[in-house]
Amino acid sequence: MAICYDKLWKLLIDKKMNRTELKEASGISFNVLARLGKNEPVSFESIEKICFTLNCKIEDVVEIQKEEPKQIDSDAFTTIELFAGAGGLALGIEKAGFEPLGLIEFDKDAAESLKINRSNWRVIHDDIANISCLDLEEYFGIKKGDLDLLSGGAPCQAFSYAGKRLGLEDARGTLFYHYATFLQKLQPKMFLFENVRGLLTHDKGRTYATITNIFEQAGYTIQKKVLNAWDFGVPQKRERLITVGIRNDLVGKVSFSFPKEHDYKPVLRDVLLDCPEGPGVPYGENKRKIFELVPPGGYWRDIDPEIAKAYMKSCWDMEGGRTGILRRMSLDEPSLTVLTSPSQKQTERCHPLEARPFTVRENARCQTFPDEWQFCGSVQSQYKQVGNAVPVNLAYEIGLEIHKSLEGVK
Prior knowledge:
Helix content: 25-40%
CATH topology of the largest domain: Rossmann fold
Structural class: alpha/beta
Oligomer: single chain
Number of domains: 3
Distance between the termini: 25 Å
Strand content: 5-15%
């Protein structure tokens, strides 16, 4: 579905008003006016201001036009993904047998990465707040209750009203609010919500308690588990909190089990030795020389204490093991959690064979992206996209189990 504001411009002509006058009278911003001119979604609040100014109804200014229907495999389960990033979760779920109706992503580079890799995907590069306020059934061309899976993971934010059990209003002002809005409006058969393990203890547990309460009030029975990607064919220690919900009316017909851990756990030797070249960021000359002294699998304690102390500066007197400082990986261990930046002093991951950070492509291999998957934007942006992604193989394993669950109601 595409949004069109032709009715608004005709109404302005009838009222002998130009666009600048509309902006001044309604209080909308230049940015909103520009989005209207490009037929892009704007917030419901902006539309309300315009309607109040023009003394008209929403349908007098906004029109949703039907696009050419997307050909969906009749046997495929449908999914909509929020906060899609560069596509780790979406790619794994697609591999498990799902067909995306739409993927929403605000970051320009990440959205471009999705488009360049999957030209057939409907990638919506926009603020989710501009989409969640729409008639989602009409926008995605699917009736309430028919969507098979809603997936994604909103960034972790504290809730102003946590613990007051106000339902969806508990989450207003957070990105999770829009995930919950999609859930309430579309009522998918199942949902997948992934996040960092720390969400369980965020704000003394109140944040996740509020989230689960909202899920339950929306009509879902939930299951949660912390999964380590290393257990599921990913050469990386990376723990994620996975929450899966089943719509209450389907609980008797649908059962879900988390995937079983693999017997073999891959290590860096499995993915680094034949890795294609890719963009990267080198260490400075001094740092490179120090890392040459660190053995594979070692860290700052494995070199001359005077050299380590000079490098660590104030960190030398900190408490704790500080095992992330001057950390060099070994081929016979998994990667530590892939981060969004290649070189951070207290969370370093030096390449086991060369004194340098991992390249974007090496990090992508640790996240189990296929080598042909491209990332757009600057080198820093590419590192960030890869570091923020859900490992593809982990997403695939979870997606397979959800697919098995939905087979009972197809």
